[in-house]
């Protein structure tokens, strides 16, 4: 019987799943320049070791916020798309999120804790939900813009959120939910805060939630993109009510 032999070694080190197995067309996102493109691809390919050097180098010429928005978040959005089209599975998604978070950490260090704090924001990911990447991006952007973030983490019980608002008296509270089964915690938090007379803007985002859902309960303001968080916090610091924020940011 004739032995099977590889005649072309060109693709030997290429990721088999992207090149040959995916039902889609592979990586489709493009960044604004070559440096950002390389960083974005490191996220998509889950290259945590390589991303550190690239982000370090990029930080010598680019604003950390540009690297976060135009490479790191962009890469993670592409990962979500590759998951949706069936090209990516859990291992790739976990590697990608590790790479994105390593890059964000470097950018956060560069931005430092320079500015005087403008106000406190409590952030959390809904009870039962471990999808905290959106929340981590929100944390990084708020900190970068001078807000003190009380990060309650993921899978946070309703009580813990309500107690944190009582304790820290933030200008705004945020929630992230990626599952239809977990987003229902937001309405419970909203009712509890409202009953306690703590009527601050409660900005809710994450793949599972829609504007229609979030604006269906008191205090709820829908956050479509993490980049909106600093502007929303600034409005809250300036006395903006949840109704005013809802009117400004939601249709
Ligand atoms: C990454 C991922 C994971 C990772 C999570 C890693 C982590 N640390 O977060 C891992 C592998 C652990 C995982 C596990 C699971 N996952 Co998962 N996962 C995903 C995936 C592929 C991407 C989600 C993601 O991180 N996107 C990128 C982030 C940045 O997006 P984001 O959070 O939505 O944030 C953006 C906006 O929404 C907004 N935003 C978010 N929050 C806020 C807050 C404010 C204030 C503002 C202004 C904006 C804002 O800003 C961000 C952009 O700038 C999605 C599929 C998809 N296409 O979304 C499935 C998905 C969310 N997972 C799903 C499921 C079912 C699970 C599991 C139950 C699987 C299992 N059977 O075990 C477990 C969950 C266990 C649990 N209890 O939570 C389902 C949920 C279905 C549903 N609608 O209920 C999805 C939709 C996949 C699917 N189509 O079935 N998952």
UniProtKB/TrEMBL annotation:
Transferase listed as a keyword: yes
InterPro entries given in the database record: Cbl-bd_cap, Cobalamin-bd, Cobalamin-bd_sf, Met_Synthase/Corrinoid, Meth_synthase_dom
A Gene Ontology biological process term: methylation
Residue intervals of the B12-binding N-terminal domain: 26-119
Domain B12-binding: 118-247
Entry keyword set: Cobalt, Metal-binding, Methyltransferase, Transferase
SUPFAM superfamilies (alphabetical): Cobalamin (vitamin B12)-binding domain, Methionine synthase domain
PROSITE patterns documented for this protein: B12_BINDING, B12_BINDING_NTER
Keyword set includes Methyltransferase: yes
One Pfam family cited in the UniProt record for this chain: B12-binding_2
Secretion signal, residue range per the UniProt entry: none
GO cellular component: cytosol
GO molecular function, one term: methionine synthase activity
Family: Belongs to the methylamine corrinoid protein family.
Protein name as catalogued: Methanol methyltransferase corrinoid protein
Organism annotation: Desulfocucumis palustris
